[in-house]
Amino acid sequence: MYDVVVRSGTVVDGTGDAARTGDVAISDGRIVAVGRVSGRGRREIDADGCIVTPGFVDIHTHFDGQVTWDPLLTPSCWHGVTTVVMGNCGVGFAPVTEPNREWLIGLMEGVEDIPGASLSEGIRWAWESFPEYLEAVAGLSRVMDVGAQVPHGAVRAYVMGERGAANEPATPEDIAAMTAIVREAMHAGALGFSTSRTTTHLAISGEPVPGTFAAEDELFALGGVLGELGTGVFQLVPAGAGGEPMEDQFREVKWMRRLSAQVGRPITFGLFQNDHEPHLWREIVDMARHANETEGAQLRPQIAGRPFSVIVGLESTHPFKRRPTYQEQLAHLPLAERVARMRDPEIRRRILAEAPASVNPRAHLFPEDYEKYFPFGRQPDYEPGREDSVAAIAARAGRDCEEVMYDLLVAGDGTQTFLRPLLGYSEFSLDPIHQMLREPHCVVGLSDAGAHCRLICDASTPTSQLTHWARDRSRGERLGLEFVVHKQTWQTAALYGLRDRGLLRPGFKADVNVIDFDNLALRPPQFVHDLPAGGGRLIQRADGYRATLVSGEVTFVDGEHTGAQPGRLVRGARDTAGARP
């Protein structure tokens, strides 16, 4: 008798091959049969009318602190994710000395918009070195598997102190000490090394992340550890990725292609379309492909499955947040009272007449443009048309855009939210993302799950990729369901050497989703105060996940946790060269 049999579903196995009707039998945490299974299971799951997929593997998260207090790792757990990789963008919490703990919290708060008070309250520090951090994570129970990369910012600050935090050049002695830490981390089970080079990533102090301006000798030495050990991924957010101006837009790709070819390891780097140079992404993708085909590099542009967008609302951020009247009289009020006060004609008149009291330091990158503010409906749409924007609504009514935006914000109970794409929506179309998704060497990531929690809610991307690209898209070509599943299961798992998951095949880890695909739907984003110290964040749930299994244990049924916590720490990426399903 099997432990579990998922019966009579449409099996989408992660390879990209055509779906087929069949059963999936599981014993001892592994898949033992796929197809027609005659034996019974101690637990039978009826998947008739549903698709059955591998669990989703999200390679770009920032759960480094949350993993120590939240066994569910919300909101990713509500979207079929069964493995996450954290420690991205050069930020994390190890290695660290006790006096520098709050500094690392400030770094994470500034770069990833996770409330510092929540991190200070929630993290139970039990480590100094990176191996000790992994041991602390391994000792905690959770619903899904987690893996970690060693972050450049923490390593640099640990070795160089204030010089490292201030981005001073590293000496040969500094570099030797940093490579020793990275080597120790990789031996202990780190999945890779991460860094950030975009000047849009700033600590809470306003300083760029340590490593932003690291010279090639430092980068090549740290990347060389991965080559020496024959394992791990080099992950980064390159300069220019946030849309900041660059004299040489191809500078980063030039050194990345040399480093990857030299050390024989994959480099995955964030790539978005940006409004300043909306066609630059195409040239970078072509350069990466050429380097892979002719130079022995393994460049893997990491792309988003939907626009990188701020969720605008009275509980997150909005255009009137910096107006003096709002800041001084309204910002501290509970939502219901704030909405009532904002509807007062005199308060409304004053706020609309005022200029912001303070300047957004990133405003030059993302100007206030009501052509790109889109009200969310009951079913969130991540590819809205120009005619759906606040500017278009105002034009049809013959009204001022700001007045319309203000009135929409305070309508109803004040929980109306808006999509404001920052990157990946330069031409009001997802056709560029469609083209990126079809590139074999581009991988899907950049969900930033666990991060930007007061502004962004892209942890739900695995769900929106299924609904939008494989089912609902009406403004352009769709993608096959089998292809979409492959892109967020086997391809992401294989990049990080996690070749025991991501496929529904005998011998593979029994991480499985049973999904009512016809009725799969995202709920609107919602602002809650459930972080430690009462910190607020955006969450987004979904309907249609009938069951999620991790290592053969059912963790969620119809979106509700069963109590099972089979998740484990994933250690040690294996060599991914030539990986095939």
Explain this structure to me?
With 581 residues, this protein is α/β, with parallel strands linked by helices. It contains 18 helices and 25 strands. Strand 2 and strand 3 (30-35) form a beta hairpin. Helix 6 packs parallel to helix 7 (216-229) and helix 7 runs parallel beside helix 8. The longest helix is centred in the first third of the chain and has 17 residues, at 172-188. It is globular, with a radius of gyration of 23 Å. The chain starts with a strand and ends in a 20-residue tail after the last strand. Mean pLDDT is 95; it is low at 574-581. GO terms for molecular function: hydrolase activity, acting on carbon-nitrogen (but not peptide) bonds, in cyclic amides. This is N-acyl-D-aspartate/D-glutamate deacylase. Residues 43-556 form the Amidohydrolase domain. It holds the Pfam family Amidohydro_3.
**SSE-based structural type:** alpha/beta
CATH fold-level label of the domain at 88-307 and 424-444: TIM Barrel
CATH architecture identity of the domain at 88-307 and 424-444 = Alpha-Beta Barrel
**DSSP strand count:** 25
Mean pLDDT: 95
Which range does the strand content fall in? 15-25%
pLDDT < 50 runs, ≥5 residues:
574-581
The profile of the biggest β sheet is:
9 strands, mixed
Q: For the terminal residues, how far apart are their CA atoms?
A: 28 Å
CATH class of the domain at 88-307 and 424-444: Alpha Beta
CATH homologous superfamily of the domain at 88-307 and 424-444?
Metal-dependent hydrolases
Radius of gyration computed on alpha carbons: 23 Å
Principal-axes geometry comes out as globular
Provide a count of the helices: 18
**Helix content range:** 25-40%
Region (Disordered): 561-581
Pfam families: Amidohydro_3
Domain Amidohydrolase: 43-556
Protein name: N-acyl-D-aspartate/D-glutamate deacylase
